[in-house]
Write a structure and sequence with these properties.
It is a single chain. With 121 residues, the protein is of the alpha+beta class. It has one domain (20-115): Gyrase A, domain 2 (2-Layer Sandwich). It is built from three helices and five strands, in the order H-E-E-H-E-E-E-H. It has helices at residues 2-12, 48-65, 106-115, and strands at 22-32, 35-43, 70-81, 84-94, 103-105. Strands 1-2-4-3-5 form a five-stranded antiparallel sheet. A hairpin with a 2-residue loop joins strand 1 (22-32) and strand 2. Helix 2 crosses helix 3. The radius of gyration is 17 Å and the shape is globular. Residues 1-12 have low confidence and may be disordered.
Amino acid sequence: MAILSLSACAEADGASEVFKPNYRGVETRLLQGDLVQFNVSMTGARTPADVDNYAECAAAQYAVIRDFGFARHLRTNLKQEGGVWRADAVYTISPSLPRGLRTIDAEVVVANCKANGIPTV
């Protein structure tokens, strides 16, 4: 009986819903030097973290394309309107590990994005 009761709770709170993201594209803009802005949009995000991950994947692929091994997250502005999530994220890219707390190894992140079905630039 306890198992039936728990599964009913999971269905009631939406935990059993299938994640079906629709990645709607990335716009990339070089701001200056190593500073790059990524505007991404998607539908079907479960949480803001899904949109953040999409932007991070775009930043990582951009760094790889430009022969830079690393990126550092500076900021992300998120908004949701009419079921569409949008993120405006800014990263620096660099050939060596930058200082800061939110750094990413671009090749590792790109591989993780591909493994999780998140498109890159």
